[in-house]
Amino acid sequence: MVMKVWKVVGLAGIVGVAATGVVIARGERKRKAYTPEEVRDRLKTRVKEAANA
Question: Which residue ranges traverse the bilayer (predicted)?
Answer without folding.
Answer: 6-25
